[in-house]
Design goal:
A hairpin with a 4-residue loop joins β2 and β3. Helices cover 37% and strands 19% of the residues. By secondary structure, it is an alpha/beta fold. The structure holds pyridoxal-5'-phosphate (PLP). Pfam families: Aminotran_3.
Length: 390
């Protein structure tokens, strides 16, 4: 008999009742150190007092009004995002997938309005993940995600990650945009080198092709800058944001330059819940905390500490780990053992980690994880690896 919850997930037998900072407590009182943060969502830890206050204060005033009206909380968050990024304008969504959908629509409308309605193709890369909508799975193109769900939305071409020649050859007059994650999350914490991002930006500038960056997982302070692309010095035309921006409350955003957004006039897009007062009140508080240079400096310091520890861990368990990858607090352990076995062994040590493709275990802690919790996490990973080796 099919379970009451549609069985699309292989769930671990863990149910949590309470969270505080980097720790989760199960229904029966066991404490787990959380290095997954809801897959890079709880950027400021569980039950962060400032976020709880922002949410409850707003909840006592107003939950929902339609986008038919002015929403001051939405205006505040949009202003903050515009102030701190390349973007001139923002559309709020409830998830990363919805932001991806709008990115696709925006890029196509841009060329349609320029009198090039056939310029619809969007180039993507192997290992990409942009969500589970019909558009987002067509964009990622992997067999695992699309099998059985055809016919797929046309107009996407998936290129091999890192194949520069194929990319140059694919940049034809039909291409509307390239869409990519500066660091692939689901794909296995695969970092696109800064030089590649710069080269791609140059190629986009030469051809007019729009650059869409998906910073749903790697954005909002995760790499030690507000957004990951800032390390390379380039800016995109369009960017998807979600996960960390709500600190656990579901909210996403699509950021764009005025030029890229030119086609999105009244009536071309909408959302009932996107930009609701609750999500935006929390998002504005997250932005306030994360845009503080002292906060980002701490993320970088802790990332250095964690990475150094992980390098040591990998070196002392060569039969379990091949190495460490990633940037900031978006880290991956490339495994020699099965990554899902490492995740299970970590559960045994009351430590939560997240598997990814390419046999990688993802470590995406709260950005304000304490030094003591990093030390504790390293010790638990060490025990988990030892238990596997034996
Ligand atoms: C890079 C990236 N893009 C898009 C998405 C989809 O976001 P959501 O699950 O909020 O729809 C995800 C989710 O994991 C992601 O990691």
């Amino acid at each position: 008999m099919i379970p009451a919850i549609l069985p699309t997930y292989n769930r671990a037998p863990l149910a949590f009742a309470k969270g505080e900072g980097s720790w989760l407590t199960t229904m029966d009182g066991a404490r787990y150190l959380d290095l997954g943060a809801g897959i890079a969502v709880n950027a400021l830890g569980h039950a962060n007092p400032a976020l709880v206050e922002a949410l409850t204060e707003q909840a006592g005033q107003l939950w929902h009004v339609s986008n038919l009206y002015q929403i001051p909380q939405q205006q505040k968050l949009a202003d903050l995002l515009v102030e701190h990024t390349f973007a001139d304008t923002v559309f709020f969504t409830n998830s990363g997938t919805e932001a991806a959908e709008l990115a696709i629509k925006m890029a196509r409308k841009y060329w349609y309005d320029k009198g090039q309605p056939d310029r619809v193709e969007i180039l993507t890369f192997t290992g990409a993940f942009h969500g589970r909508s019909t558009g987002a799975i067509a964009a990622a193109g992997s067999e695992k995600m699309v099998k059985g769900f055809g016919p797929l939305m046309p107009g996407f071409k998936t290129l091999d990650f890192g194949d520069h020649d194929a990319l140059r050859a694919a940049m034809t007059d039909n291409v509307a945009a390239v869409m990519l994650e500066p660091i692939q999350g689901e794909g296995g914490i695969r970092v696109l080198p800064d030089a590649c991002l710069k080269g791609l930006r140059d190629l986009c500038d030469q051809t007019g092709v729009l650059m869409i960056l998906d910073e749903v997982q790697c954005g909002v302070g995760r790499t030690g800058k507000l957004f990951a692309h800032e390390w390379s010095g380039i800016t995109p035309d369009i960017m998807m944001v979600a996960k960390g921006i709500g600190g656990g409350f579901p909210i996403g955003a699509l950021l764009a330059t005025e030029n890229a957004a030119a086609g999105m006039v009244p009536g071309t897009h909408g959302s009932t819940y996107g930009g609701n007062p609750l999500g935006c009140a929390v998002g504005a508080k997250v932005m306030e905390v994360i845009t503080d240079p002292a906060f980002l400096a701490e993320v970088n310091r802790k990332a250095g500490l964690f990475r150094q520890g992980l390098e040591g861990l990998a070196a002392s368990h060569p039969e379990v780990f091949e190495g460490v990858r990633g940037a900031g607090l978006m880290l991956g352990l490339k495994c020699k053992a099965l990554n899902t076995d490492v995740v299970k062994a970590s559960y045994g040590q009351h430590l939560l980690t997240v598997p990814a493709a390419d046999n990688v275990v993802r470590l995406l802690p709260a950005l304000n994880i304490t030094d003591a919790d990093i030390t504790e996490a390293l010790a638990r990973l060490d025990h988990a690896a030892a238990s596997l080796a034996s």
